[in-house]
Amino acid sequence: MAVDNIRDKYHAAGHDHLFTFWSTLKESERESLSRQLENLDVNRVNRIYKKAIASEKEAADPEPIEPLPVGACESIVNDPASEKRWRSAGLQAIARGEVGVLLMAGGQGTRLGSSAPKGCYDIGLPSHKSLFQYQAERIARLQVVAEKECNKPAGSVVIPWYVMTSGPTRRETEAFFTKNKFFGLSSKNVVFFEQGTLPCLTAEGKIMLENASRVAVAPDGNGGLYAATRTPLSESNNSTVLSDLTDRRVLYVHAYCVDNCLVKVADPVFLGYCISKQADCAAKVVPKASPSESVGVVARRGEKFSVVEYSEISKDQAELRNPKTGELAFNAANIANHFYTTSYLKSVESFEDDLAFHIARKKIPTVDLKTGEPVKPSKPNGMKLELFVFDVFPFTKRFAVLEVARNEEFSPLKNAPGTGADDPETSRRDLLAQHKRFLERAGAQVKDGVEIELSPCVSYAGEGLEFVKGKTFTRSGYVENPEELDALL
């Protein structure tokens, strides 16, 4: 698009101040700025700003929140019959090639003292495998399990993996996968794409400049996932995640965040449950650890399903209990673990303008439009706009919730080493404790103090370990193949 046309578009949208320094810019700077402005949907930015401001005002008088109604949430805890039935249905869908996996992995390990993508992090296991490697190997193992249990030829079952990166992490993430030969997966079945960004805005909704020739931008939140699935995979590849899902005839998608070392990637139980419920969208939850736990819960806001942040729940509501079960009324802790049909992901575009972005007021480095001098503010001077992945829940016609055991499926990595909660040490502890349970459930004994790490290639969720029955393990170690377990007796 010609520069004059871009300028006219921005003038009409109320953002012609972005050309304030045009006459002073070098040719390369002009090209860079015009390219950035051409790729930006300025009218969408205006719509998002107006909706966010209006929603913030409405939030001052929110709709009442209520616990999930009876029957809205089912549990696999202490229900092995349902778990077995749903697992079978999920494996059949996987074996038919109907399942894909969407990983939200745009974050860096800043809080962990690392600038690398969070998925590259080593939580200190004996194997020193990264989060990415663990999840890749779970996919590889699940493909084998589906082949065996559904009588499919070896190598015929594929679970495509869609890895959402961000501007700062994409190159390093792709390089990490390439260096590690995609952890045994076929590179053609691992698809990288990028979380979007939005311009930073002033309180009046004006797009901010980072410097004379660049717009200030910030990631659009993990809810940017939905728009990102419609965006070309790269400048040289016009395919999108949605077109790739369609080409592969994938009907169901499991989405999750990278920082949970216990995540059951493409969990057949969750998939089977959602398919049986004919859900468009669903959430996996765990019981809250305590009334005061700082976690959002899946609940009802008015007549619609929603995630209610812990800051929105009063102390009395947080401590309220179901008189029949004794459990917390607001008990369904959200763990960013979701199910979608592909058709639902495609439909999000139709109601995207109704989604309200959340405003985060921040100190944003910018440039003084009068003097051209850099500005490093000491207090918030602008806003970043974010969408959360669960913001689509209220727009879902057929929504489902499945409760799972926290110790089997949720151990987030949020904090620096040594914090004592949600840190590398607790992730390591929880994963090794699970592997001990796998062995004990299969009929083995594990002596006190013995730590055994089982590669996901050995067992996805405790299956395939029948041969350890009656054995006693007395030595710690890491096992990559089932035969290696005998060395730990």
Radius of gyration: 24 Å
Oligomer: single chain
Average of the residue pLDDT scores: 94
Number of beta-strand segments: 23
Question: Helix content range of the residues, please?
Answer: 25-40%
Low-confidence stretches: none
In short:
This protein is of the alpha/beta class and 489 residues long. The chain is 29% helix and 19% strand.
Give the secondary structure arrangement, pairings included.
Blueprint: H1 3-12, H2 27-38, H3 42-58, E1 65-66, E2 73-75, H4 80-95, E3 99-104, H5 131-149, E4 161-165, H6 170-179, E5 190-194, E6 197-199, E7 209-211, E8 214-215, E9 217-219, H7 225-228, H8 241-247, E10 252-257, H9 268-276, E11 281-287, E12 297-301, E13 304-308, H10 315-319, E14 332-341, H11 342-351, E15 358-362, E16 366-367, E17 374-375, E18 382-386, E19 399-403, H12 406-409, H13 424-441, E20 445-446, E21 452-454, E22 472-473, E23 477-479
Parallel strand pairs: 2-19, 3-4, 3-10, 4-5, 11-19, 20-22, 21-23
Antiparallel strand pairs: 1-12, 6-9, 7-8, 10-14, 11-14, 12-13, 15-18, 16-17
Helix pairs in contact: 4-5, 4-9
For the structure shown, list the relevant keywords.
489 residues, alpha/beta, three-stranded antiparallel sheet, 23 strands
Molecular structure report:
- 29% of the residues lie in helices and 19% in strands.
- By secondary structure, it is α/β, with parallel strands linked by helices.
- It has an eight-stranded mixed sheet. Strands 1-12-13 form a three-stranded antiparallel sheet, with no helix packed on it. A two-stranded antiparallel ribbon has the order 6-9.
- α4 crosses α5 (131-149) and α4 (80-95) packs across α9.
- The longest helix has 19 residues, at 131-149.
- The chain starts with a helix and ends in a 10-residue tail after the last strand.
- The mean pLDDT is 94.
